[in-house]
Design goal:
alpha+beta; 212 residues
């Protein structure tokens, strides 16, 4: 798998790798992503792939998954090396399809959920057992807090049902005590959350543009 610096509209992405290196063990790149969220992959339109890898898996990108490109790249990193060109080689516009997909991902916060999914599916390949357990507890706790924030943003029960259903589908059992801890901790930020709720109500009533 080969990637490079990429330009999306007027912002550059994928920086951070040491400039003197161009080839990396897949283990190193997969581990860096799962532990630090450093995404050096890019998207499916900004990478080069072995044609044999593409032919061996059908579908290569599983569209039933959100962020299926990252999931596919992590799967490849279990066995492949990662090449990186320290040049700005791709440019992307935000098409209507991209905006629609991103709007759904933002509204339902599929990003937070995808981190849990990637951890459960690939974490054991890139972490030792102690790291896996520690990271899992932290991600699940953060996700519970994110779900509570979504309630303050008036996202509704459909969003909650979506998250619980997807968590069950990837084998995550509900942890009532951990969720209760997240509720207590989030209550400490009640003034901020109440402000968020007030802004959400204002947006729904048409009094204020969405700026949060």
């Amino acid at each position: 798998l080969v990637s490079s610096y990429r330009l999306i509209e007027n912002r550059a992405f994928s920086d951070g790798l040491p400039y003197h290196r161009t080839v990396f063990p897949g283990y190193e790149i997969g581990r860096t992503y799962l532990l630090n969220r450093n995404n050096y992959f890019g998207s499916e339109t900004s990478v080069m792939l072995r044609s044999s890898d593409v032919r061996e898996t059908d579908p290569f990108f599983d569209e039933s998954e959100f962020h299926s490109d990252t999931s596919t790249f992590l799967r490849l990193m279990k066995d492949a090396k990662f090449g990186f060109s320290h040049q700005l080689l791709t440019f992307s516009r935000r098409s209507n399809h991209y905006v629609t997909a991103t709007s759904f991902a933002t509204y339902y916060d599929t990003y937070s959920l995808s981190y849990l999914y990637f951890h459960v599916r690939y974490g054991r390949y890139f972490m030792n057992p102690a790291e896996f357990r520690k990271q899992y507890e932290e991600l699940l706790y953060k996700h519970y807090r994110k779900m509570i924030k979504l309630l303050f943003r008036l996202r509704g029960l459909n969003v909650m049902r979506y998250h619980f259903a997807r968590m069950r589908s990837i084998g995550i059992q509900n942890r009532p005590l951990l969720m209760f801890k997240a509720i207590i901790d989030e209550t400490l930020y009640l003034p901020c959350n109440l402000r968020t709720m007030a802004l959400s109500i204002a947006v729904k009533l048409g009094f204020k543009k969405k700026t949060f």
